[in-house]
């Protein structure tokens, strides 16, 4: 049966949250944060796995659950231990200092930076040292029904990922088949790319959860080296246009991706759907929690779950008046549940 890519993606995220890394060499105290649809302006990966540990994750949690964008990172990472004039303490941002002052006020309002005015000068002092909390970043491309044709179409993008080496590892996850040779023909993909074959259950009654095995181990990419960003390529590889990505740029971009993963996780998918529809619910299928459409009797893709869906019906008004104080209907409860699960995953001291 053909598996919608969105549903498959959610199942891979849940499997990775439970089982990463997919081998027996898991480090003691290791933690992972799993997110989806993150990357750069030019490339968005289906699944992101950020490897860290409990101690460093706890140090990051002092800065709150919201992400630190590039401007905030530039301030909190360089804020001094003792009071200092902000222009003496921070490196030249490369843009007007008035924008830095706005960022300082934002950080102070969020309680992650101390700021004071002495005369006509703004002085800053860090509250905590920003930790080097990111160990590795794993990028996974999800293709549930990956045949030779689909693998060939992926080759170009995966080659770009390997050349840039922004992630530490690049994987492709595909659905297990009954064939001896999986449809992801190894020679079609870059040798540096790992391959996961994923087995899912369509019913809870099977008693089995989503599982995966490694069909091909990836090579670790050198994140500290200069990367190659391929801009354009034709039939002749020697005619490709490219530019270099400096290690400093890569390090900053990796941290920005990790910060977005910390904030969003994979459960934020509900923000692009309509949980306020009377037919929307969450259902456990094969051990995975998936969105469920009662009208279509299926786990619906996010693209189909909108106000334009012909089966869309707003929740009856009386559903939204249950509870006191007013807390909304089942749709609001679904959002709260997923947000609480995301919060617990960030704050638990043990991975499992």
Brief account:
By secondary structure, the protein is of the alpha+beta class. Helices cover 28% and strands 24% of the residues.
Task: Write up what this structure looks like.
This protein is of the alpha+beta class and about 350 residues long. The chain has three domains: about 5-55 and about 135-265, 3-Layer(aba) Sandwich (Trna Endonuclease, Chain: A, domain 1), CATH 3.40.1350; about 70-125, Arc Repressor Mutant, subunit A, CATH 1.10.10; about 270-345, no CATH class. About 30% of the residues lie in helices and about 25% in strands. The protein has eight helices and 13 strands. The protein has helices spanning about 5-20, 55-60, 70-75, 85-90, 95-110, 150-165, 245-265, 330-345, and strands spanning about 30-40, 45-55, 85, 115-120, 120-125, 135-140, 170-175, 195-200, 210-215, 225-230, 240-245, 280-285, 290-295. Strands 1-2-6-7-8-9 form a six-stranded mixed beta sheet, with helices on both faces. A hairpin with an 8-residue loop joins strand 10 (about 225-230) and strand 11. Helix 3 crosses helix 5. The longest helix has 18 residues, at about 245-265. The chain is globular. The chain starts with a helix and ends in a 5-residue tail after the last helix. The model has no long low-confidence stretch (mean pLDDT about 85).
Class based on secondary structure composition and strand pairing: alpha+beta
Task: Kindly estimate the percentage of residues that lie in beta strands according to DSSP.
Answer: 15-25%
CATH-assigned fold name of the largest domain: Trna Endonuclease, Chain: A, domain 1
Low-pLDDT residue intervals, each spanning 5 or more residues: none
CATH C-level category of the largest domain:
Alpha Beta
Instruction: Give a short account of the largest sheet.
Output: 6 strands, mixed
**Rg, please?**
23 Å
What's the order of the H and E elements? Answer: HEEHHEHHEEEHEEEEEHEEH
Q: Provide a count of the helices.
A: 8
Distance between the termini: 32 Å
Helix content: 25-40%
CATH architecture of the largest domain: 3-Layer(aba) Sandwich
Overall domain count:
3
Q: Kindly report the oligomeric state of this protein.
A: single chain
Strand neighbour order, sheet with most strands? 1-2-6-7-8-9
- The shape, in one word, is globular
Tell me the total number of β-strands: 13
Mean pLDDT: 87
């Amino acid at each position: 049966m053909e598996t919608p890519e969105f549903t498959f993606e959610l199942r891979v995220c849940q499997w990775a949250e439970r089982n990463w890394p997919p081998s027996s060499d898991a480090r003691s105290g290791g933690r992972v944060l799993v997110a989806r649809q993150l990357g750069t302006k030019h490339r968005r990966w289906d699944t992101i796995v950020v490897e860290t540990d409990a101690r460093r994750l706890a140090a990051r949690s002092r800065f709150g659950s919201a992400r630190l964008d590039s401007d905030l990172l530039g301030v909190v990472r360089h804020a001094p231990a003792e009071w200092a004039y902000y222009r003496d303490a921070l490196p030249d941002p490369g843009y007007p200092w008035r924008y830095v002052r706005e960022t300082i006020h934002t950080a102070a309002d969020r309680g992650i930076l101390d700021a004071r005015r002495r005369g006509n000068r703004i002085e800053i002092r860090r509250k905590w040292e920003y930790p080097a909390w990111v160990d590795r970043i794993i990028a996974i491309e999800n293709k549930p029904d990956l045949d030779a044709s689909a693998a060939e179409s992926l080759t170009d993008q995966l080659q770009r990922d390997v050349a840039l080496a922004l992630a530490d590892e690049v994987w492709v996850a595909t659905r297990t088949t009954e064939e001896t040779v999986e449809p992801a023909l190894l020679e079609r993909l870059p040798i540096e790319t790992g391959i996961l074959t994923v087995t899912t259950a369509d019913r809870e009654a099977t008693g089995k959860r989503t599982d995966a095995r490694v069909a091909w181990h990836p090579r670790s990419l050198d994140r500290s080296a200069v990367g190659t960003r391929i801009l354009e390529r034709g039939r002749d590889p020697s005619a490709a246009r490219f530019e270099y990505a400096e290690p400093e740029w890569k390090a900053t971009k990796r941290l920005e991706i990790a910060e977005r993963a910390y904030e969003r996780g994979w459960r934020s998918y509900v923000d692009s759907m309509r949980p306020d529809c009377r037919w929307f619910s969450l259902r456990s299928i094969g051990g995975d929690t998936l969105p469920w459409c009662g009208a279509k009797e299926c786990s619906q893709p996010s693209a189909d779950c909108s106000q334009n869906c012909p089966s869309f019906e707003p929740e009856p008004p009386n559903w939204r008046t249950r509870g006191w104080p007013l807390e909304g209907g089942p749709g609001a409860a679904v959002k709260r549940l997923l947000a609480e699960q995301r919060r617990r995953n960030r704050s638990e001291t043990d991975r499992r």
